[in-house]
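Q: Could you predict the 3D structure of UDP-N-acetylmuramoylalanine--D-glutamate ligase?
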Amino acid sequence: MKTITDFQHKKVLVLGLAKSGVSAALLLHKLGAFVTVNDRKPLNENPEAQHLLEQGIKVICGSHPIELLDEGFEVIVKNPGIPYHNPLVAGAAAKGIPVLTEIELAYLISEAPFIGITGTNGKTTTTTLIHEMFKADKKHAVLAGNIGQVASEVVQNAQPEDYVVIELSSFQLLGINKFQPHIAIITNLYDAHLDYHGTREEYAKAKLNITKNQTENDFLIVNADQPHLMKLAETTKATIIPFSTKSVLEEGACVQDGYITFRGEKIMALAEVALPGAHNLENILASVSAAKLANRTNEAIQAVLATFSGVKHRTQFVREWKGRRFYNDSKATNTLATKSALSAFNQPIILLAGGLDRGNGFDDLIPYMKNVKAAVVFGETADKLAETAGKAGVQEVVKTDTMQEAVRAAYEASAEGDVILLSPACASWDQYKTFEQRGDIFIEAVHTLK
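A: Sure. Here are the predicted structure tokens for UDP-N-acetylmuramoylalanine--D-glutamate ligase:
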């Protein structure tokens, strides 16, 4: 951990707790800042705040009083989930007070270089693949950010010869100042989080922050199959490394003559890759690019790609039973993600879908449902999805109340050689606390089939 004086004797407000807020507060305290923590949850219901209070850190709980801006804070470190229109955050910006996220702190103290991964889809799979490639090469890498542990905590023990492999959201990237990954990846860019960012342009601008401090000695890996993204990437000072699933590239990563290649070098036969789906091929090409730029061996890359079958809840292979292959894609909380999952398979599909009703329709799924022979629907959107399945010409539609019923109904509608796919196209909050809980219940139901 670097010894820095950036925050010494400065008044810093940590706004919002959760894991990243606690870590940020403790780190700033260690760095000699005068830290105040402000969290909406009342103190008597807030064990994290109570712990910080015991460490000698000032804590204000129960609300976000605007009067805090009168206390002369020089820096605010904000939880990424708190929007910028929050009165405290907007007021700080109006006063010219820097508003950072915990990622900036992690970068400032880290002795290890960063590989940063962002994009609309594929971040977690790409991040995991890169980390696994380092492990297979017996090289240490720290897994941090939205996947893994809180960055500002784990980088404290990172060594100069290590890499920090970190998944980054647009929310986190808005709160950086000096953050400069040696290798940055933008997997793709679609409309998302517009309720937070306001416009597509602002969302894209937040994503492009990942490269704003890069130099010609750094690398930006970017999806060449998205011309709009390539156009945005032209603003970077970094060396652009493109990847494409559709075109042959001399400089970047692509598929040529049945092989995954990087800068013209054959890395591995595509037929030997375990992870299914065109969308996952994008993630694979991005991760191979990062691994090669970080001097990982082809043998390590091959070992991972031959065995890696998916991140949990993201088109995760669960089990083959009586000739049916079961996949858990509970992370698919919108139609865009479900389109990708449906496109991953050429076999007949039994689709399990449904969840929280956000007021949207599902007819944009219809062109992707050509292989869907049966749909099992549930949750608040069951009727909407049943109607969409009917329009798509799906032969059989079954409504169920529980995941256990849905799995049993899906099996009964299937035949040998079919894929049974949970890809809900909806958030989970109508029936489950998280998409992880929904996926875990699916996995359990699949393993208890008799």
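Q: Anything worth pointing out?
A: Residues 316-447 form a domain with the Protein-Tyrosine Phosphatase; Chain A fold (CATH 3.90.190.20).
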